[in-house]
Amino acid sequence: MKGAERIDALADLSPGSVCQIVSLELSGLLRRRILDLGIVPGTLIRCIRRGPSGDPTAYLVRETLIALRSEDAAQISVRTLLNGEECI
Amino acid sequence: MNLSAKQKRSLWQDHFGITIAAGQYGVALAGNPNVGKSTIFNALTGLHQHTGNWPGKTVDNAQGGFQYQQKSFLMVDLPGTYSLLAHTVEEQIARDFLCFASPDVTVVVLDATCLERNLNLALQVFEITPNVIVCLNLMDEAQKKRLKIDVQSLERELGVPVVATAARQGEGLIELQEKILQVASGALPTNPRQILYSPEVEKAVEHLLPMVGSIANNTLSPRWLALRLLDGDRSFLDSLSSFLGVNSCWEGARCAQ
Amino acid sequence: MCAMMPTRSLSEVWSEAEIVRRSYPNSFSDQMVADIYGNVEQITNNVLTKQGSKRYLFDQKLDDLVTSKRFGYPLMLLLLVIVFWITMAGANVPSRLLASGLFAFQDQLTLWFQWIGTPSWVHGVLVLGVYRTLAWVIAVMLPPMAIFFPLFTLLEDSGYLPRIAFNLDHIFKKAKACGKQSLTMCMGFGCNAAGVTACRIIDSPRERLIAILTNSFVPCNGRFPTLIVVSSIFIGGAVAPYTGLVNALVISGLILLGIATTLLISWLLSLTILKGEPSSLVLELPSYRRPQLGSVIYRSILDRTLFVLRRAVLIAAPAGGVIWILGNIYIGQQSLLTSLGQALNPFGQLFGLDGFILMAFILGLAANEIVLPILLMSYLSTGYLQDFTSLEGLRSVLVSNGWTWLTAINMMLFSLLHWPCSTTLLTTYKETGSKKWVLLSFLIPTMTGLSVIFIFTQCVRFLGLV
Ligand SMILES: Nc1nc2c(ncn2[C@@H]2O[C@H](COP(=O)(O)OP(=O)(O)O)[C@@H](O)[C@H]2O)c(=O)[nH]1
Ligand SMILES: [Mg+2]
């Protein structure tokens, strides 16, 4: 789990990389919806794939694939785990 | 809720359009979208709700009856919901039913392949009703993914009966009916695990609890109501006042007698 | 009085809670969700062991293909064409067999009626009206539905549909709508009323309304048979050895046109009466599950095909009787039906249709399934054509009533783009709770359809192609 750390936006993650949620800057319904899916500070999340035209992106979180648009994912900050490959 | 059977029947009819016969046990099927609720519903009731592997097929209540051991049950298939803090119409339907209709048994159907997200809802249901059964569905898929779930420990952790099923293959459904009967008739006591919140939340709940008691007037758990007030969920407040309005009228009617 | 009391104290407690909420620097609800997940993790740590499995790899590989840049869209198109190809190729023979069987039985029925000695108008209403329409509905609808529904259910059970929404979301985003709208459109293939109800899965009210108002641009199962038959007669039939494939391409093309229209209208709506930024998409992609063939066939035939057929039969039976009566009540030289058809005819001609076609569509407000049977009944109530069980026979009925390829194309276009059926309108009212949206959900597709066929017809006529 230990490794170099950097704060990024979830949207900037490239497929295959794993990170940990730091905070959500979203508001309203969307914020609730995303929290309910278990995307809360501390959760590990892996970027899996982009749609055929680059958006939306599918993320693996708590054993489920969730697709988010880049605008929304841009408002979720994450800590990149450089050697977090086995965590999820 | 301590409603009389008759009040309950009219509440179900007026607010949810569900006709329950006298002496029939009411069973609600709750769970995340796409976990097999409608498949279970169809298997038990012999009806034909739309099923399919994508979220959002069931967006309204459906009801159907079944018999087990000479007892009659009315099952309500609720729309899938990720949490009880509802945002959309169909989630609101599910929430209002679980919160205000107080079914005799609530079966929370879980997808065994993504336990965490599903337990999130289960724990929330535990906060509003003790009469819960957890149905661990899609066990065949979990097996394919080589996920091992210790059902007995889970039962101990949750404090409610846990039944492992593969609804599409019909596995475990007899046991599910057996447990439904036992919980409905009170033969099997349950003691669902309560969520332990962080100290700040618990302190705020403590603060609100004395005030909330009078509103809840025995119809809702005061702790749960206090938690919702901390949520600050407006839409829930609306449902609450509409349902509490109904209930308090009943209170009044009872006093007048 | 007693209802007031708790509400007031409720609002008092609400404001007290607000003070508590304000005093806390973070949001309580965020904290609560995080706490719940904390509890959940404790539980799963104790009960769950993951052993790693190739299953995940399988899902990944399939998704690599299904959502890939190169194959994602072609695969969707291919599936669309294949589904319709199988449907039409497979339905052809059973349809013909059913038609000849049912019409042979009609002759038998006629003999019985004569034997009992019923008055000829009773025989007319019951046999030539009700029975003949029913025979049409069953022969035309049953085979394609019995093939299409199982295929669709297979796709549905496998988990492919959410991938469609995933692939298409960015296009819907450009139209300022939600990708989940494509799921509601999939429901619309079965039945537009179900599609409208399914719009509840769309979170934002604005995007939900857009999805509701445009759902009828997806042809429901009541309209497929019309499209299939007309295409088979006038287009597929013209290219003999490739009939099935060409028909499948025509129908797929029409569906793509419906999707394009949906996107265009969605975009226009978001620019005008339903203004607003696109909100968001949170879409779960469930893992693939292998469908069970047996249960798929059982469910799709019993629950869907027969269900749909039953509904069609219930509406078609009385409609057939009424049409026969209208066709046989004479005022002067003309039957009532002919007069009605003639009254509508100038309007119909303007749009490249005719009076009877318009009348059939108007009566089809009750249910789209009856449009084609009613139309044929109207044509047949005057002439006595013998062989109308084969496509050739049908073709001659239509041609002798002035149909050209232009009429056929207009018929298909208008079937795709016209008012939703009454059930769908009623459902729209239930879902939106406002007459205004119901009116719009009627007017938008109607105006779109009329404009399209008007422009198309005038162009074709101007160019002298017909
Ligand atoms: N493999 C497997 N599939 C199941 C099982 N239960 C349900 N399904 C499938 O999962 C999908 C979702 O089921 P459905 O009943 O519609 O879920 P609902 O949204 O909770 O009502 C359907 O395609 C079912 O056929 C099960 O135990 N095993
Ligand atoms: Mg369902």
What labels would you give this structure?
heterotrimer; B: 257 residues; Rossmann fold; six-stranded mixed beta sheet; globular; C: mainly alpha; two-stranded antiparallel ribbon; disordered N terminus; binds magnesium ion
Describe the structure.
Chain A is built from two helices and six strands. Chain A is α+β, with helices and mostly antiparallel strands and 88 residues long. Chain A has a six-stranded antiparallel sheet with strand order 1-6-2-3-4-5. In chain A, a hairpin with a 6-residue loop joins β3 and β4 (57-61). Chain A starts with 6 loop residues before the first strand and ends in an 8-residue tail after the last strand. Chain B is α/β, with parallel strands linked by helices and 257 residues long. Chain B has helices spanning 5-16, 37-45, 89-100, 115-128, 139-144, 151-158, 173-185, 199-216, 222-231, 234-256; strands spanning 25-31, 62-68, 71-77, 105-111, 132-137, 147-149, 162-164. In chain B, strands 2-3-1-4-5-7 form a six-stranded mixed sheet, with helices on both faces. In chain B, α4 (115-128) links the parallel β4 and β5. Residues 246-257 of chain B have low confidence and may be disordered. By secondary structure, chain C is mainly alpha-helical. Chain C has a domain at 1-51. A two-stranded antiparallel sheet of chain C has the order 3-4. The longest helix of chain C has 45 residues, at 72-116. Chain C starts with a helix and ends with a helix. The model of chain C is unreliable at 1-7 (pLDDT under 50). Chains in contact: A-B, A-C, B-C. Chains B and C meet through α4, β6, α6, α8 and α9 of B and α1, α2, β1, α5 and α8 of C. β6 of chain B pairs antiparallel with β1 of chain C. Guanosine-5'-diphosphate (GDP) binds next to α2 and α5 of chain B.
